[in-house]
What we know:
This protein is mainly β.
Amino acid sequence: MKKVLLSAFAMVVLGLPKLSAQIINPNFETWTPDYLAGAPVMDPNTGMGHSGWWDFNFFNYSLLGNSPVTVFQDSVNPTPISGKFCAKIISEPMYKQDWDTLKQFGFNIPDTNGIIFTAFYSARSRITVKNGIPCTTKISSLSFWYRYVPNGSDTCSCSIGMYHFDTATKQRELIGGGFWNNYTAKTNWTSATVPIIYDSANLKPDTIVIMYSACSLYSHPKAGDTMNIDSVTTGLPLGIENLSQQNSHVNVYPNPANTQINLAVTSQLSVGKVEVYDLTGKLMGSYAMHNNLLTINTQQYNTGIYFYKIYDHSGEQMNVGKFSVIK
């Protein structure tokens, strides 16, 4: 039975029907028993065959690997921002065979993890996963409330990808996105907003992929990190040129880059360092800035969109922006 279930994981990523920019189950009020593990294991969606928030709780099924449950319906600690419930994510180590299955189907995450992500799921004649949910509006930002209690030193994050399905090539193209992370404990509900930056002024999205992680996905994740999420909302669309007013103080050239990118801060800001991330939230590098100038070697970067964050010497974020690399 175990081999049959594992062999069924033929994940098919397809285009989604076009709908509005409404986030499905934004307040995490809807929960259903996990389709394999069953009650009391719950998932924040309306069940198999629907779009919404998904997780890896099904690996708690005894015939798979009985990996720990990582996403929970929470109503007491802390009291939700809106409604009766919020989502609680706890990072835990996975059973090795379950983790190997995730790697086989493209989930490049550590064996210790705790995530929720937007997707469509069906497990009838075969298992079909459509990554993301419908979104046809160029939203300017994603906002949410969170609480974070790490087990030592770790990082929670939110990554967003906006996709356009090309009917000619039958491929999904990443046209924009955003990334947010937090290094410090937040025992009370705290609001966060992730700016979304687009690489194309002409293409419209049809899909949004959102992923929350309770622990680092790239560097020494800890078991026992707890992240609560509630009240997810989208910002009103803005013109592409107005997405980040902060960027008027930073010149980025050449953009798109090939072998190197230059950042020059034109104001009298006290700049400390620059961090560069790809659209999955992977840290590509952390660089000290001298005399408000920085040249980054991009020869090892793949073609794509990258985000930079500029910090002052005290560690406060001063600026966020993006650049592209084309090989």
